[in-house]
Amino acid sequence: MSSTSQKHKDFVAEPMGEKPVNALAGIGEVLGKRLEEKSFDKAYVVLGQFLVLKKDEELFRDWLKDTCSANTKQQDGEITTEKATHFN
Amino acid sequence: MEAVLSRLRGLSADELRGEFARAGVKCGPITATTRATFERKLARVLAGPETSATDTDSSSSAASGASDADHAKPAEAVLTSASTKCKPTEAASEELDFGYGVGLNPPEEDEIFSKTTSNCSAQGSHSQSHTETPSKSAQVSPTCYYGVCPMWEDVLSRNERAHVYTDKKDALQAVKMMKGARFNRFANREDAEKFAKGICDYFASPNKSTPCVSPAKPGLLLGKDHLEVDSINRERANSFKSPRTQDLTAKLRKAVEKGDEAAFSELVWDNPRYLIGSGDNPTIVQEGCRYNVMHSAAKENQAGIAQLLLDTLENPTFMRLMYPDDQEAMLQKRIRYIVDLYLNTPDKAGFETPLHFACKFGCPDVVNVLCSHPDCDKSCKNKDGQKPCDLICSRKNKTQEVKQKISDYLEDRCFVPLLRAVDNTSQPIIGGLWSPESSESFSMIHPHPRSPMDPVMTVTAYAGPLSPSKANDFRRSWKTPPRDRGNLFHNILKSDPDRGAERVGRDLAHEMGHPWAEYWDFLDSFVDLSSAEGLLKLNEYLSKRDFSPQGHEEAGENETSNKFKTPSPGKLNKFCNSISVGAFLDEGDDMSLEEMKNRQNAALTSITSCAASGLKGATGGPRVPHPAHRHAAPPRGRPHRDGSRAGAAVLLDRTHNGDKVAPRTSPSSMLSPISNLMVEFERMSLQEEHRNSSISSIFSSPPSSASDLSTGLTRLSLGHIGQEGGDPAEGGEEEERSSGSSEEFFEAQESVEGLGRTRGGALGGGRNLCARSKSWDHGGRDLSSSGSSGSSYKSLDNSNEFLPRTPPKIRRGLFIEGDSPSKLDRQVFSAIQGLDVDVLKYPSIHKWKSTMTSYSTSDMQSWPSPAVVKPGLRMPQTPGSPARFSPARHTASPDFSPSRYSPANASYIQRIRLKHLNEPSV
């Protein structure tokens, strides 16, 4: 699991605020670009999607793959991030 | 509209986004849940402004026809229930949602709801009215019962059936009829009945309007009283309401993040609870992570706010707002407590202190503010065990210089202080490294009182804050200047006992680019005059002087302008100076005889006190000669002063009777040619040599008792007013009693020192005395005075040459002290010499500087030092006093720069002093 990556730590260490979507662990330049194209420009929008999918990891993974073709590792990173953020 | 909508519905997500872009409307992510909303929004925009509200309504209802529009459900429900047959179950379930836990007064929505459903409620209530009995129809099954409980007495007095309803509306009506009644919802009828009869009281529901439900009425009243007392107590503590969370997060945090200091202090001073939460904890301005104001300020690089926050918290007035009745000590404790919390509280997310934040986000200014506070913990660890120094610029501003800056700030912040005796009787000491943290514990180690022998030391200048290594370097080069310039610095040190060490330090600090500050009496603050702040202050001061001629007069009076003032502007000296006749003559033109006499009397009394203090203070030999040297000297020192005054002084000296003073100090004599005066002066000194020496011997002899002292004084006054020569026999006696050494001096003076060179035995004596005292006492006590007497001798020689050129008194320029140039002018001038002063920015400095530049360097050498009315005890004498947070500290430094925790802040001085007197002196 990539739950202890520095990026993840940095993300969860502070309030999400207006952080851009590529501040999420697992979302780098490329995926961030793709998400932004689909108007998921801020981290909180992605969180919103996660919530709309009723916090269902499977659905969220599916959605991620669909939207920005993220691989499993990336998905893992993001999901843990989203969860951590949400339950913060 | 419909057409547009249907067209949009046919588009793919990307195409729809394209449409949005074309229309110039922002759109969020298009997903299954958001798509319909966005479509409608776009359709409305595309359809144009002619679409009316009803249109949108219809469109929404049309959209609600679509399966994915479940947001319109409630409206739809109402509509359908209104149009179709009334379904009581649904209505009931609606009511169930609305009515639960509602207090006595039904909320507005209920009434609205009852109105909207009024058309069907007729049938509904019909169908329900017969369900009051538990018999249930298939459709209409009352899922709940409403029990209405009237006031307690009412229950007792009225013997009617229990108020139990199945319809909430009925229950509400019943509640309205009975004043102070409550109602609650129950799952079964029995409970509802019990409640209605008041058998089982449900306290769970909060019921403010009926506080008297409980049968235990007296007890309740008691409790109420107690409550009131409590609230009164709290009222007295302070009358501020704790702010709402919204205010904290919205107003306060916004102000902090924007760096809006005005808004911040307004909020905070209006209600101190914005900063001080319950239990004196910092308030939380960001929920979740539990940030306080300091965290937010550090995160957003708001150094100003951080400093303002610390200042506000440490201001006792602020704490007083919160705790008006606190004892001073308690208040100090509280302040320390909350300041500590603000500085060092970790946040909830990563256990990081504000310092972590400031380091992480690369905010050197905030790091500076935080680190300059002695209570700031620099080695706190966060969740991952990292200290602030491990995190420098890990997130933002990753430039090398910012990193360097921050790590510099994080190091210990040392100051190199310069210490001087208050009366300048000893050599200035360049203190060891001083940092706010280390000095804290120091006072604990040395609680012993200082001996009365030790001169009182104060910090007069300091360089810093610096990192320890830099501070060490600086200190070394200050103490032993670099070889190539050693001579120059050595000269400065020797020739300028007042400020030599400062000048060397100043030059060095500027050269090395270190911050520097020295104490200027006339500004009453520590500043670097060559800095913008220093110039501003100086300009302010000068312009104030420029526009208040009255001030000149006042100061002029103080300015006794005695050359011998210079060596040791101390306690003794001050009094001695007041006797110098020259002081009386500063305004000699219009002075009446009475005034003169008065002043002479005053001078004599001051001698008494001076001598007394001399007795007290001087425990050994070294001090005793001082009075002699000074008292005898003034008349001789006169010639270096500007001509007219010198003349007057000589005249006065020659008048041996006070009665003659007035006529002699006429303007004509004031303006008489200087050369004449010089001749007269020389002649006079020849004649009066004997007299002078006897006077000085009176003074130089250590008076063995108080009575002796007083006779000595009488004799002095006699001699001074003009009993020629005094009583020879008495004088001889005194001389005999005087210490052997001083006798030696007088002999030496008489035989060796030529009149032509010294113009007076007493002066020679004085100088000799000093020279001798140097040899007596290498301990440093008299070093400065001896050295300076040497220099004053030098300048005496110089000044004789310049005397004719010295401008007469009429000249009026802008000077720092008095209405003639003084040594202080020279000192300040040398401090800002290298600078280009902007005329527009600092007009007064410019004016003053141009005055200064009109004098030659040698002129400046001859300027007398102004009479120093030393604030003397700038520092608190009691080492244990809680001066750290005393108001004095705040008034002393109204400008809150980070250097507040510098050695200039007095209470530390004592510790430094103790430390340094225990070390081998420089």
Strand-helix topology:
The complex is a heterodimer of chains A (88) and B (922).
Chain A: H1 6-13, H2 29-37, H3 43-52, H4 57-68, H5 72-87
Helix pairs in contact in A: 4-5
Chain B: H1 2-10, H2 13-23, H3 35-47, H4 53-65, H5 73-83, H6 88-99, H7 108-116, H8 118-129, E1 145-149, H9 152-157, E2 163-165, H10 168-177, E3 182-186, H11 189-197, H12 217-237, H13 245-258, H14 261-270, H15 293-299, H16 303-314, H17 316-322, H18 328-344, H19 354-360, H20 364-371, H21 400-410, E4 414-421, E5 429-430, H22 436-445, E6 457-466, H23 468-479, H24 486-495, H25 500-512, E7 516-520, E8 525-527, H26 532-546, H27 549-558, H28 571-579, H29 581-585, H30 593-617, H31 625-637, H32 643-654, H33 661-664, H34 667-670, H35 674-687, H36 689-700, H37 706-721, H38 728-737, H39 740-751, H40 755-758, H41 761-776, H42 783-802, H43 823-832, H44 843-853, H45 857-862, H46 887-892, H47 907-918
Antiparallel strand pairs in B: 1-2, 1-3, 4-5, 4-6, 6-7, 7-8
Helix pairs in contact in B: 1-3, 2-3, 13-14, 13-15, 15-16, 15-19, 16-20, 19-20, 20-21, 22-47, 24-25, 26-44, 28-30, 28-31, 30-37, 31-36, 31-41, 32-35, 36-37, 36-38, 39-41, 41-42
GO cellular component, one term (chain B): endoplasmic reticulum
Family (chain B): Belongs to the ANKLE2 family.
Biased composition (Gly residues) (chain B): 757-767
What features would you describe in this structure?
The complex is a heterodimer of chains A (88) and B (922). Chain A is 62% helix and 0% strand. By secondary structure, chain A is mainly alpha-helical. The longest helix of chain A has 16 residues. With 922 residues, chain B is mostly helical. Chain B is 56% helix and 4% strand. In chain B, the strands form two sheets. Chain B has a five-stranded antiparallel β-sheet. A three-stranded antiparallel β-sheet of chain B has the order 2-1-3, with helices on both faces. In chain B, a hairpin with a 4-residue loop joins β7 and β8. The radius of gyration of chain B is 44 Å and the shape is elongated. At the A-B interface, α1 and α3 of A face loops of B.
